[in-house]
Amino acid sequence: MRNRNATAYRFLTPYLLIFAVFWVWPIISSFLISFQATRTVPWRFAPAFNWGRLIGDPAFFNALKNTLLILVIQVPVMIALAMVMAVLLNSPLLKARGLYRFAFFAPVVVGEVAYSAVFRLMFNLNFGIINKLLNSVGLPSIDWFSNVTPAMALIMIAVTWRWAGYNAIILLAGMQSIPEDVYEAATLDRVSKLKQFFFITLPLLKPVIVFCLVLSIIGTMQLFTEPFLITERGGPGGGTETLGLLLYRQGFRSLNFGYASAVAYTMAGLAIAITLVQLWLTREKQ
Amino acid sequence: MATVTLNKVVKRFGAFEVVHGANIDVKDGEFVVFVGPSGCGKSTLLRMIAGLEDISGGEIAIGGKVVNDVEPADRGIAMVFQSYALYPHMSVEQNLSFGLRMTGNPKADTERRVKRAAEILRISELMDRRPRKLSGGQRQRVAIGRAIVREPQVFLFDEPLSNLDAELRVQMRIEIARLHKELGVTMIYVTHDQTEAMTLADRIVVLNAGNIEQIGAPLDLYDDPANRFVAGFVGSPKMNFMAAKVVATEKDAAVVELLNHGGARLRKSLSSAPPAVGADVVLGVRPEHFCEAGEGDCDIPVRADVAEHLGSVSYVYANAGPEELIIEREASRQRASGDHLVVSIKAGRSLLFDTSGARIR
């Protein structure tokens, strides 16, 4: 047995080496760097330099506020939308199911730059189709990129468009694993379809919904692409700057690796904390 | 309580017809079992009665009222599923009361019905448990309990015992028989297990490939099967079939020669005109109807291949090959493979079939 394990580990060695160098070491290294003042040469150990700054940095709190705002509004809306899409996909009345499944999943495989460019065009103040549609129903144009609230809404719409279908497919898989005869039993019990959804489907889907929520929370905590590409690096005036963007700006624009590492660990810590709270709230009660 | 009448009921899935015009009359309070091999359409028939499958043709009436277009919940039926179909996230009590709670049944009445079902099925101490904390037998009781609280006119059971082990199956079978006696309600029960059918049913409906082969009381099917399929399906171990040829005929009898048993001949009395001389026929003899050499009307020598000793009886599997025979013998520990023995067939306990499987009476 020991011999077999040794052989297995020999096969695993190339991967483990890459894993250690490019995953484990950066994790440890960035943790250590977060305690160093990296704007001096040579770097020196100064725990308060980055972590102290974090506590009093308005830019950090702005990014944190924006990230949490997106998390609190966008994630529940997206999961609810994904649930509606999954229910529609699961409906026996639906024709061309494969086409819809592809359409819902397609945003995930579209290149980030391409979709961001399309969103910028669609929401353009002067010739974007969204404003044209608003005008056509008598509403005024919205300057999506110059005002904070519309810009935040735009980020949320974009993220929702991109990931709702992905979550819908996961929820659909969960729905399809619920045995049909449970619904048949409920039908014989004269339970309406709506009540079946709320009293059977939702409770039985809870582990899958929690999984989707955890994935979405982690994803939103790391949100970078949309505010970077669509609202032009967190604009207007930092109005859509997220923690991911702050990290990027500090680490790779200002080359302040120590502070960027502290932000990174804060993001990871928050994601873990929120996820744990959520798992606790939705735990199976005995 | 209610009658259930199926009149020329047809079921098609697309162009494929799976039930071909079934006619069944289930009397008020009767226990009827649909039995047949996998894919014979018995579960489909039950699901059509429940309203879970559309009816492609014909009529189904419950309590004299045609229910073809009546919603499942309004048919006055309750169904117990093979997989139990319990709500996994609810306690036993919630499982039992769910349907009543959802439809706004008065709380006191719901509690009364749940309590009564729990008492009937002796599950009162399990009420707070979730289904996954229950054994297979307990789950099955809860599933039956859920049917009882509906106070239906007709109970439908879809292979309810097939997920249980052999011992529990016997126990639950007795429970279901007791339940039928206690409630006195019409019950329709689907199974592929002919032992379940024989022990539970007032009447059995034997199905094969979407056709009803015979309807009758268990022992009537055993003693007087309409055709070779029913003869082979009812009884355990199954009936032996021996290829034979008519070698002579009389006014009310035929003499047949067994083709694979050394030309042994048997005179079989018939109530109808005998088949023509030279016609191929099949002689059916149940394992328990072989007797000792000389005691019957036709002795045949056999060579035992395997002997199964069950204690009370022994089964000898003889003449491995195209026509293996199963012979029930008195309990014996001596008989073993390779033994040669002579058994005898009583003409009165044998059945004759033509090559299409129809009975020659």
Automatic annotation (TrEMBL), chain A:
InterPro entries: ABC_transporter_permease, MetI-like, MetI-like_sf
Topology in the lipid bilayer: Multi-pass membrane protein
Keyword ATP-binding: no
Subcellular compartments: Cell membrane
Family, as annotated: Belongs to the binding-protein-dependent transport system permease family.
Keyword tags: Cell membrane, Membrane, Transmembrane, Transmembrane helix, Transport
Record-annotated membrane-spanning stretches: 12-35, 68-90, 102-124, 144-164, 197-218, 257-281
UniProt domain ABC transmembrane type-1: residue ranges: 64-278
Coiled-coil stretches noted in the UniProt entry, renumbered to this chain: none
Pfam families linked to this entry: BPD_transp_1
Cited PROSITE patterns: ABC_TM1
Protein name (database record): Sugar ABC transporter permease
Record-linked CDD domains: TM_PBP2 (cd06261)
Organism: Mesorhizobium qingshengii
Gene3D superfamilies: MetI-like
From TrEMBL, chain B:
The keyword Cell membrane is assigned to this record: yes
UniProt xrefs under CDD domains: ABC_MalK_N
Gene3D superfamilies: 2.40.50.100, Nucleic acid-binding proteins, P-loop containing nucleotide triphosphate hydrolases
Residue ranges of every copy of the ABC transporter domain listed in the record: 4-234
Keyword terms, alphabetized: ATP-binding, Cell inner membrane, Cell membrane, Membrane, Nucleotide-binding, Transport
InterPro entries linked to this entry: AAA+_ATPase, ABC_transporter-like_ATP-bd, ABC_transporter-like_CS, ABC_transpr_MalK-like, ABC_transpr_MalK/UgpC-like, Mo/tungstate-bd_C_term_dom, NA-bd_OB-fold, OB_MalK-like
PROSITE patterns cross-referenced by the UniProt entry: ABC_TRANSPORTER_1, ABC_TRANSPORTER_2
Keyword Cell membrane: yes
A molecular function GO annotation: ATP binding
Source taxon at top rank: Bacteria
Homology family: Belongs to the ABC transporter superfamily.
PANTHER family associated with the record: MALTODEXTRIN IMPORT ATP-BINDING PROTEIN MSMX, MALTOSE_MALTODEXTRIN IMPORT ATP-BINDING PROTEIN MALK
NCBIfam families to which the protein is assigned, alphabetical: PRK11650.1
Stated name of the protein: Sn-glycerol-3-phosphate ABC transporter ATP-binding protein UgpC
